Amino acid sequence: MIRNSLVVFAVFLFLLPLSAGAAGYGTAGCGLGSMVIGSDRGAKQIFAATTNGTSGSQTFGMTSGTSNCGDHGLLNLSKEREVFASENYTSLVKEMAQGKGENLNILASMYQCPIANYQEFGAMTQDKFNELVAGAQTTPIELLSRLENQLSQHRALSKSCNIQLSVLKR
Which residues form the signal peptide (predicted)? Predict the structure, then answer.
């Protein structure tokens, strides 16, 4: 009996990665990690799982249908960026001032900027920091709205990133 249970369990473990790959994400599952790292096999999935775990995006994504966990409509992507900016606001502002960082790269990926443009994305946020964070009372939604305005005016990023999926202006 125990031997049969172990065989069934082993077969399940071998088939689990196949079902995850069929869903459009790697063995780490859906979440920001699957958006940033992708579905590449191997050790990269450890980083995807870490990103999912530290950002809490996997649980949120499964609940809301975002973060590569379901349909990606305008409202879902917009809401996902709002939640991410709100939860990571302090770190995000610090990284924008520095022009680099993990949260800033995740935000660039949420605008579907190619990885090759992350450095330029960071440089733009550093250069335009005073306009993006106008004061201590700047809210995450205001920050995203100003960021999208700057992205739309940027010569290269306006073409390479997907700004049409923007935060709904309030």
Answer: 1-22
